């Protein structure tokens, strides 16, 4: 694992300033990585990005709005996540006007970044919330996406298995904002999300959390992103219109987005293929990189 990132670059996209960086040959086929809820682009580890670039791709990762070094939408205030979640859990539609933005807006951010980089279409790979954003890109901007890879993501449909209680608690408990508290908490969070014993990963968790802390926390942005997920509702019916060749990757031990959620996406996207990673939880430990990078590279080819 690298302890330092290349300095971030910045692009104006969809009216926002997004932090990004690139790996590999600028003439290679572009491949855009989209990260999950409240998670900075550095969670796509440099070595992961470099391995993917070595397979012949120009790999681009970026901070979503409201996270890391990208624009923070503080003027939008903090939505009532508990109320929104309560509505969603009983199957009530959530009025998107109750939230500052939705996943559709975040999909448009990603397309704005491609515009800024002069890229007409790209392979799109998203993890967790990033997978849901990638699905939205395929639905909203079909001409801009060459292939879709949805990793540990859901269709958002009501009635799918919920997160395990310990994973839901992790999702809904605000992280401490002091350095030591944040780092200790992230070590616990990753243990829950990985859903297994990964001593090699656990040895890196404090350093990873420190990097995240030093780039800057945005608890209000986390709440707004979570509200965006809830208010975006189900994509299940719309997935039938996805034209991009689609690969779904999911771990069979995922405590936050159970594997049935990934199976639901694969079932509803025409011609989608599914790769199940044994013992993988809701994280990308290094032991999963080779099968995941192989699957992405083969799919994009």
Structure description:
The structure is a single chain. The protein has 301 residues and is of the alpha/beta class. The chain has a single domain (9-162, 220-300), classed as Alpha/Beta hydrolase fold, catalytic domain (Rossmann fold, 3-Layer(aba) Sandwich), CATH 3.40.50. The chain has 10 helices and 8 strands. It has helices spanning 46-53, 81-89, 103-116, 129-140, 165-172, 179-194, 199-215, 219-232, 259-268, 289-300; strands spanning 9-13, 16-23, 29-34, 57-62, 122-127, 145-151, 246-251, 273-277. It has an 8-stranded mixed sheet with strand order 1-2-4-3-5-6-7-8, with helices on both faces. Strand 1 (9-13) and strand 2 (16-23) form a beta hairpin. Helix 3 crosses helix 4 (129-140) and helix 6 (179-194) crosses helix 7 (199-215). It is globular, with a radius of gyration of 18 Å. The two termini are 27 Å apart.
- The CATH architecture can be given as 3-Layer(aba) Sandwich
- CATH first level: which class? Alpha Beta
Give the helix tally. 10
Largest sheet: 8 strands, mixed
- Average pLDDT, rounded to a whole number, is 95
Low-confidence stretches: none
Count structural domains.
1
Biggest sheet, strands in spatial order?
A: 1-2-4-3-5-6-7-8
CATH topology: Rossmann fold
How much of the sequence lies in strands comes to: 15-25%
What is the tally of beta strands?
Answer: 8
Secondary-structure-based class equals: alpha/beta
Distance between the termini: 27 Å
Q: From N to C, what is the helix and strand string? A: EEEHEHHEHEHHHHEHEH
Based on CA atoms alone, the radius of gyration comes out at 18 Å
Shape call: globular
Helix content: 25-40%
CATH 4th-level superfamily: Alpha/Beta hydrolase fold, catalytic domain
